[in-house]
Fold:
Amino acid sequence: MKKRLFIAIQYLEIGGAERSLIGLLNAIDYSKFDVDLFVYKHTGEFMKLVPPQVRLLPEMKRYAALSQPISQIVRRGYIDLALARLCARIPARRFQHRTGVKESIAIYQYIADYTTPLLPSLHKYGEYDLAISFLIPHNIVRDKVSAKRKWAWIHTDYSFVDVDADDELPVWDAYDKVISISPDVTKGFLGKFPSLAGKIFQIENILSESFVRQQAKEGLEEVEKEISSLCDRAGGEMIRLCSVGRFSYPKAFDRAVHICKVLTDHGYSILWYVVGYGGDEHLIRKAISDTGMQRRFVLVGKKENPYPYINSCDIYVQPSRYEGNAVTVREAQILCKPCVITEYATAHSQIQDGVDGVIVENDVEGAADGIEEFLNNKALQVKIKEYLSCHHYGNEQEARKLEEL
Structure:
């Protein structure tokens, strides 16, 4: 008999974790698994990429409301959820006062603690052999799903985030396995939760080489015209740098603007275009305005298919302050694009420096110096391209670990 598998995620907007889930779903052997996917809110460009073999469970209104602003939750009539969200701010403020931490992600766990009891049970779908909570909040699969085994996924490098470990520990500890996407993510997580070492198991973000290459060809001609037009506006022939990701503090695109400014001041004809969206867009645009980089550092917006943009660049750049495991770096390598990444904690688990990419310092001046050195080293660029062209970066076999466990 097939094993019954339940997977939960908040939504399927464009993002690294969401793309990783699509990779996992495409790699599962459906002759062995019946998969139910529970997406709290049926939004996002990746919804249509869910394989037809997956049973997409119906959206439930209370779950869909979780990610909405409090004002919208009130307008929809869920006063209890709105009050719970407000109440979660009290322990969050206490945590900040107690620790002196100004910014933390502890608030998300407090919100989950207060709102999960108000959500309907999912026991009506029966008992599963395995239930996976693919992204926080992990309270929901713990409390609302019936399953013989339960796993929770880590996508964040906990070395760089502040959490209330005492509050989160019982949630993680309720799971049979905690799935890490890389050794460095494991190290960061165990730095906060050392008692969970026995539960950790590694499954890398799953990428299909054939899928990435196929998607990279779709609409490529139109994207090439778009990028050529941006180059013409910037002054003609340009070195094309590309980055993809959410506009958020970890991705550091605000800082990348200043790196671009340094390179431009040093005489390099750079067009750096970024595919993405997010709450920090105003900070990035302010940096662009402050540095006068309007024609050199361009936000091309949210794209359902970013691969033609990666395919159109000369060098892919990941300028992050910190990362769990940047999926886009692997995708760029699949497309044989030389990658430059900053030396965040997990960088060396993604790139062999000087072999299949380059790691530069994690600050403006150091990153600019490293990129400049790489731009001048044409032989190394060719060497890396040749290496990428004869090595595989897909890892669909990671899905076999589901069967092993």
